[in-house]
Every structure is written in structure tokens, then in C-alpha cells.
């Protein structure tokens, strides 16, 4: 039987990744390069907000202290957030947003695919729903890496810079700690190290087709999963949580 | 309305005798409620007026994304955030349908966007007011979308096919928008005293600008008369405004909020509410660019457009390369 506090922690990680990336994408609404992109980025953000609700509601249920997805999203401070550092990175230009999305989607896709085989039916069910959405997210972000990488000189330069910039946040995606290991032991989730090879294969093939060069393996920034974040997260939460903090116990 | 004071370029309404045979045949079709389709002959003034009206409407949808978009990252719950994001996304979709409808009249979306960005094209006065609190998101859905629906429902029957069909799609979504706005207001009105005060404050600030959306009285306007003859305008501004007031006042009462108009009273004889004088000076100032947010709205739009230019160029370049490769392969 898996330790419920480890499972809670694991579900927070899944939920927080979706929450923070969905939030970042929602910042684009009304500011993107074309109306079609306002629609598409919002679609992806909406999917991620939906996944957040499912993961965090389950986390609250597992925790058993009466907290729901909103309580967890709106009333925790930065040190209690468990998303990977990659998703909280600022939107930057459109290339940075799409590079971040592609690097994450490729991992997210592989992870959800594994989670559909989780021994916990609740996890498997959420993963199956999410996988359908993320399959499309990946198709779309991959397409933009190709278009920008192999588009104009300027778009190539911007996409290359974005990949170079974000690369150090990808190492964290494949590390396992005692929480992840507990999930592996109980058959609830995959060993993250096993996702690295298929992920790199997909990323490398895409980069090649997009005429981009992948950076050499180097130092990985890590800490998000344990609540050690960049300075960016605090500002995300300041926006996200403003009303809930300013008017405690109000219903909306 | 989303399109306000649209000029037709005419100085009087032609009688049937003054019309050319083509014009007469066109007007007969309109009179018989036969839809005009893009490839058919139409008077140049009709085409130009429609372009102005549809593009103004489209621009309003696009600029309208900003005041509400302002609260997407601060929406108070995950559900509210998803609903608001979906709503603003719908507005982008409406803009897209409308630009497409305008394109059937021989203009390009890029040209229309350039007109908006240069400040030459107009959009609805309402979107030049700021969203200061969460209650403003409720008030916009309830009042602004409510006012828009008043105008758009009859426009589903307008004479130009592509515009009419765009309106049918848009109206389906607008009624959901209005309900979500009213639902936000309801939650606030039944919430804490602070929330109730927030709702009242939003109503105070949005009421009069919402009434201005319908535009000044057009009973004497030759442009309105011509547009109505062409069936691209169905009701007068005053009719729609009255309808809006009659519908909205009981809703405010139900919320327990006070409409900020000391002259508002029910006239049983007329079966309508009487309401106070609208500050048209404010309206003309906002239209002229002096509203609280005109400059920010336009700058934000131009910034998004300019910063997106390299992306659009890259997408075009990539598509061209891909097509060239496919062609080389086929050869």
C-alpha cells in the first residue's frame, strides 16, 4: 500500500505542472501573433486548467483534510508548489513559449502514456483523458518548432536561443526522488529515467528537421519538485491568488 | 453598439424611380428578405457600409478581449478562470468570423488590422473603460454582452448572407456570455458586504457607458434610414436602448442592486422605463480617443501585432519552403 503522503505529493506535482503552465499560456490571450494563435493557445491553456482540477481534486481527496483543487491552487505559498522549473519560466517571445511547450509536451505525453497503465484506476483515468489532449498539444508545439526553426533567419535565431535558454530546465524532468520511487514500487507511475531516451529521440529528430542544434548535456537546474523555485513563481501566485487572499472565505 | 454611427456615404434615400434597374432589382430582393451573397451585384455604398460596419464589429471583438483578458490571470477560482478564458477565446473567434465575413466584400484582414492599428478604424466606445475589480467582469458579461445581444439578435436576419450567418453563430455564444456575467454578479450580490459593494460599484461605473453603446438617437439620421432600408440595421438606437433598459432594470432589482439613475421610473402607461439624460459629451470624447483606456488599448493591440510579425513571416516562409519541397519531390 502506497504511503498516502507520497501519493499526495506526486499528485501535487502533476497538478501544479498543469496549473502553472496553463497560467502562463493564459497570459498570452489577446496578445499572440495572430487570432488563430489566441484561439489555439487558449485551447491548450483550457485543457491544462481542466487537468489541474482533476489532479488537484484527487490530491485533496488522497490527503483527506477536506481541501479541494481551488484550496490547493489558491491557498498554498510558493514553497509548497511542486511544479518543475521549466513550466514557470516566463513566456518570453513566441519562440520561447513554443520551445517551452514542446520540451514539456514531449515529456508530458510520454508520462501520461505510462500513467494510463497505473495500478491506481483514478490516476489511469485522468491520464487517459489528458493523453488525448496532450497528443494534440505535442503535435502543435512540434509543428511550431519546425516552422520557426526552419522559417526565416530571425525565427531560426529566436528558436535556437529559446532551446539553448531552456535546456538546463529539462534535466529535472527525468530525475526521481523517494516519492517517485515509491510510485514505481507500487506500480502507480513510471521511472522517470526511462522516459529520457524516447524524449531525447523525439526532441532530437524534431530539432534536426527544424535545422536546430541541441545544446550539449550540461548542468541541470532542479528543485521545483521539492518546492525550490525560481523568483518567477511568486509573481504568478501573486496574480493567481490575489482575490482569494484579499477576501478570505468569500465564495465566487 | 459594437458598430456605432456607421456612415453610409449617402445624403438622401433614393426613391425607386431614382434607382437604376440594377439598384431596383437589388432593393426588391432586400425587400423580399432574399439574402444577398458575395458574388451578386450590390450598390457600392452598400458594400462599403457593410465593410465599415462588419469591420467595426470585428475590431470591437478584438479590442474587447483586453478589458476582460485583464482578469484571466486573476480569476478567483479554477472554474471562473476557465470560463473567462473560454469567453475571451470566443471573442477572438467572433473577430475571426467577422473578418472572414468582411473579406467576402473584397478587403483583406491585414488591411482591416492596419486600419485598426493606425487608429483610423473605430471600435465600440465601451471597451475604452477599465476593468478595475472582478465585479467588472460580471458587469461586462451582464450589461455589455446584454446590450450587444439586443443588437445582434435582429442582425441574424440582416440582408447580407455572410454577416447574417456570422451573427447566428455569434448569438449562440453571446447568450452564454451574458449568463456567465449575470452568474458572477449573482454570486457577488449574495456574497459578503465587500462583494456586494464591489458589484454595486461595477454597476455604477458600467451602467451609463452601456447605454451609450447603442449610440446617440438616430431618429433623424439619413445613414440609419439608409441602413434600415438595406436591412443591415434592423432597429433604431433608441428602440434597442429602451428594450435593454426594460430588460435590465428588473435584473438589477433581482440582484438587490441599484441602477445609478435618479430619474429611472416605470411608466405604466407606456409600458416602459423612463430614464435620465445620457452624457453624450462623454460619449463623443471617448469616441474621439479621450476615454480612460483608448491609448492603452491601441498600444497593446499594435504591440501584439508588431511583435507577432516575425512569427507570421516565419509561418509563411516555412509554408513556402514546404510547398517548394513537395513540388521538387513530385517533379
Q: What general form of chain A does the structure show?
A: globular
How many domain units of chain B?
A: 1
Series of secondary-structure elements of chain B, N-terminal to C-terminal:
HHHHHHHHHEEHHH
Distance between the termini of chain B: 55 Å
Instruction: Provide the number of structural domains of chain A.
Output: 1
For this structure, what is the CATH homologous superfamily of chain A? Answer: Ferritin, core subunit, four-helix bundle
* CATH arch. level architecture of chain B: Up-down Bundle
* Helix content class of chain A: 55-70%
Q: Please, what is the oligomeric state? A: heterodimer
Q: What class would the helix/strand composition of chain B place it in?
A: mainly alpha
Describe this structure in words.
Chain B: Its EC number is 1.14.13.149. Chain B: GO terms for molecular function: phenylacetyl-CoA 1,2-epoxidase activity. Chain B: This is Ring-1,2-phenylacetyl-CoA epoxidase subunit PaaA. Chain B: Keywords: Oxidoreductase. Chain B: One of its GO terms (cellular component) is cytosol. The complex is a heterodimer of chains A (252) and B (331). Chain A contains eleven helices and no strands. Chain A is an all-alpha fold. Chain A has one domain: Ferritin (Up-down Bundle). Chain A is globular, with a radius of gyration of 18 Å. The N and C termini of chain A lie far apart (38 Å). Chain B is mainly α and 331 residues long. Chain B has one domain (21-291): Ferritin, core subunit, four-helix bundle (Ferritin, Up-down Bundle), CATH 1.20.1260.10. Chain B has helices at 21-31, 44-69, 78-103, 109-117, 134-155, 161-189, 193-212, 222-229, 237-255, 280-290, 294-307, 309-330; strands at 265-267, 272-274. Chain B has a two-stranded antiparallel ribbon. In chain B, a hairpin with a 4-residue loop joins strand 1 (265-267) and strand 2. Classes of the chains: A mainly alpha (252), B mainly alpha (331). The interface between A and B is large, with 48 and 47 residues.
Amino acid at each position: 500500500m502506497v504511503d498516502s503522503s507520497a501519493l499526495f505529493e506526486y499528485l501535487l506535482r502533476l497538478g501544479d505542472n498543469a496549473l502553472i503552465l496553463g497560467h502562463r499560456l493564459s497570459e498570452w490571450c489577446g496578445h499572440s501573433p495572430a487570432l488563430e494563435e489566441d484561439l489555439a493557445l487558449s485551447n491548450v491553456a483550457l485543457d491544462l486548467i481542466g487537468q489541474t482540477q482533476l489532479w488537484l481534486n484527487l490530491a485533496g481527496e488522497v490527503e483527506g483534510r477536506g481541501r479541494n483543487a481551488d484550496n490547493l491552487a489558491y491557498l498554498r505559498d510558493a514553497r509548497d508548489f511542486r511544479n518543475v522549473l521549466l513550466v514557470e519560466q516566463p513566456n518570453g517571445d513566441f519562440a520561447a513559449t513554443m520551445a517551452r511547450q514542446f520540451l514539456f509536451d514531449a515529456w508530458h505525453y510520454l508520462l501520461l502514456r505510462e500513467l494510463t497503465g497505473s495500478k491506481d484506476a483514478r490516476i489511469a483515468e485522468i491520464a487517459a483523458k489528458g493523453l488525448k489532449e496532450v497528443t494534440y498539444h505535442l503535435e502543435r508545439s512540434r509543428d511550431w518548432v519546425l516552422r520557426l526553426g526552419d522559417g526565416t533567419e530571425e525565427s531560426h535565431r529566436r528558436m535556437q536561443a529559446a532551446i539553448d535558454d531552456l535546456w538546463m530546465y529539462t534535466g529535472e524532468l527525468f530525475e526521481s526522488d523517494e516519492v517517485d520511487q515509491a510510485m514505481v514500487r507500487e506500480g502507480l507511475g513510471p521511472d522517470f529515467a526511462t522516459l529520457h531516451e524516447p524524449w531525447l529521440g523525439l526532441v532530437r529528430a524534431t530539432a534536426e528537421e527544424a535545422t536546430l542544434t541541441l545544446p550539449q548535456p550540461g548542468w541541470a537546474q532542479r528543485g521545483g519538485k521539492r518546492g525550490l523555485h525560481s523568483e518567477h513563481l511568486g509573481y504568478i501566485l501573486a496574480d493567481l491568488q490575489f482575490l482569494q487572499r484579499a477576501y478570505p472565505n468569500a465564495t465566487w | 453598439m459594437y458598430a456605432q454611427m456607421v456612415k453610409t456615404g449617402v445624403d438622401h434615400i433614393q426613391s425607386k424611380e431614382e434607382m437604376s434597374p440594377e439598384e431596383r432589382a437589388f432593393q426588391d430582393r432586400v425587400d423580399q428578405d432574399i439574402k444577398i451573397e458575395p458574388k451578386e451585384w450590390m450598390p457600392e455604398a452598400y458594400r462599403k457600409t457593410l465593410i465599415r460596419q462588419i469591420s467595426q464589429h470585428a475590431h470591437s471583438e478584438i479590442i474587447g478581449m483586453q478589458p476582460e483578458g485583464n482578469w484571466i490571470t486573476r480569476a478567483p477560482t479554477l472554474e471562473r478562470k476557465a470560463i473567462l478564458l473560454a469567453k475571451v477565446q470566443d471573442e477572438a473567434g467572433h473577430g475571426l468570423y467577422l473578418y472572414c465575413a468582411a473579406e467576402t466584400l473584397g478587403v483583406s484582414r491585414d488591411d482591416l488590422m492596419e486600419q485598426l492599428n493606425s487608429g483610423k478604424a473605430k471600435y465600440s466606445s465601451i471597451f475604452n473603460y477599465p476593468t478595475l475589480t472582478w465585479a467588472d467582469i460580471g458587469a461586462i458579461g451582464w450589461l455589455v454582452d446584454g446590450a450587444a445581444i439586443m443588437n445582434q439578435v435582429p442582425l441574424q436576419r440582416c440582408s447580407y448572407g455572410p454577416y447574417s450567418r456570422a451573427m447566428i453563430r455569434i448569438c449562440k455564444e453571446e447568450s452564454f456570455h451574458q449568463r456567465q456575467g449575470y452568474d458572477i454578479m449573482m454570486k457577488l450580490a449574495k456574497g459578503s458586504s465587500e462583494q456586494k459593494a464591489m458589484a454595486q460599484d461595477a454597476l455604477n461605473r458600467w451602467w451609463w457607458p452601456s447605454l451609450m453603446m447603442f449610440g446617440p438617437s438616430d431618429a433623424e439620421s439619413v445613414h440609419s434610414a439608409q441602413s434600415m432600408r438595406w436591412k443591415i440595421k434592423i432597429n433604431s438606437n433608441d428602440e434597442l436602448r429602451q428594450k435593454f433598459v426594460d430588460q435590465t432594470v428588473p435584473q438589477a432589482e433581482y440582484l438587490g442592486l441599484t441602477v445609478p439613475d435618479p430619474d429611472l421610473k416605470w411608466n405604466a402607461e407606456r409600458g416602459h422605463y423612463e430614464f435620465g439624460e445620457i452624457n453624450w459629451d462623454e460619449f463623443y470624447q471617448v469616441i474621439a480617443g479621450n476615454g480612460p483606456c483608448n491609448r492603452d488599448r491601441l498600444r497593446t493591440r499594435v504591440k501584439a501585432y508588431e511583435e507577432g510579425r516575425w512569427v507570421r513571416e516565419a509561418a509563411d516562409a516555412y509554408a513556402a519552403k514546404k510547398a517548394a519541397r513537395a513540388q521538387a519531390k513530385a517533379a
